[in-house]
Amino acid sequence: MSLPASAEDALTGRASVIDGDTIEINGERIRLNGIDAPESWQRCLDGDGGEYRCGKEAAFALDEWLAKSRPTRCEYVERDRYGRFVGTCFRADGYEVNRWLVETGNALDWPRYSKGAYADAQDRAKAGNLGIWRGEFTEPCVARGERAKRKPSC
Question: Is the pTM of this model over 0.70?
Answer without folding.
Answer: yes
